[in-house]
Structures are given as C-alpha cells and as structure tokens.
Design goal:
The chain is mainly alpha-helical. It is built from 5 helices and no strands. The longest helix has 18 residues. It is globular. The N and C termini lie far apart (34 Å).
C-alpha cells in the first residue's frame, strides 16, 4: 500500500518499515525490501545490503534472478563481497539454511 500509494499517501519510509516486518517470513517481501534498500527508497542507498537481501530472497523462492543480476552489474567487487557476507548474517537472522545454488 505505502510503496505504491494505493489507498494511502505514498510513503517509502513507512513502506520500508512494513517490508522489514513481512520479510521475516516472506521471500517476496525480502526481495522488495532489498530493492528498496539498494535504490535508497525510504533509506540511504546501500547496494551491498540490498544485494544480500535479494540474494536470500531468491534462495527462499523469490523470482528475482534478473533483479539480482542487475544489482551485481552496478556493484564493485568489494560491494559484492560485502553483500555475500551480509547475506550470511541475514540467513542467520531468518534461520534459513543457504542452498548455495545462487552464490557466485
């Protein structure tokens, strides 16, 4: 709702708050949260954190391989490495075992 302004005024900060809550158990919300963070919608842009969250979302079933690749193309090697490290932290937070199939 807040991300698109459907029925309420568009509010990226409020949207980010709700995606953070939903991301605890929903791969699509994890993906949306990651994209918002990477693009700086409602927060300071952070490609490494956004990439990490989208990577974990893909591992959890989100259909976001293309978005993940687009983020990689905008990132330096150091940002990607940081993103991979942060993904490990997010997996622990979410109690998700990484499949390893999407890691590069």
């Amino acid at each position: 709702m807040y991300a698109t302004g459907r029925g309420v005024a568009r509010d990226d900060a409020e949207s980010l708050k709700w995606y953070r809550l939903a991301a605890r158990g929903n791969a699509e919300a994890q993906c949306e949260l990651g994209l918002m963070i990477a693009l700086g919608r409602g927060t300071t842009p952070d490609y490494a954190e956004g990439y990490a969250r989208v990577l974990v979302a893909v591992e959890n079933g989100a259909a976001a391989h293309e978005a993940l690749e687009l983020l990689r193309q905008k990132m330096s090697a150091a940002q990607i490495e940081d993103g991979l490290r942060r993904a490990e932290e997010f997996r622990s937070e979410l109690h998700v075992k990484a499949s390893g199939s999407n890691r590069r």
